[in-house]
Design brief:
The protein is an all-beta fold. The protein has one domain. It contains no helices and 2 strands. A two-stranded antiparallel sheet has the order 1-2. The radius of gyration is 16 Å and the shape is flat. It starts with 21 loop residues before the first strand and ends in an 18-residue tail after the last strand.
Length: 49
């Protein structure tokens, strides 16, 4: 992981507070969505088609 606050490249696992928003490399980019997209709660219902 590259971090402008760290002087060297480190593993993302080394920082438990790290959350990826997106990743980029020479072939494309990936958006990292939260899991689950909608946290379960007793008063929330999800409509489906």
């Amino acid at each position: 992981m590259l971090d402008n606050l760290a002087p060297r490249v480190v593993s993302a696992a080394a920082n438990p507070n790290y959350r990826a928003y997106y990743s980029i490399n020479e072939t494309g980019w990936w958006l990292h969505l939260p899991t689950p997209l909608m946290p379960a709660s007793p008063d929330r219902q999800v409509a489906s088609r």
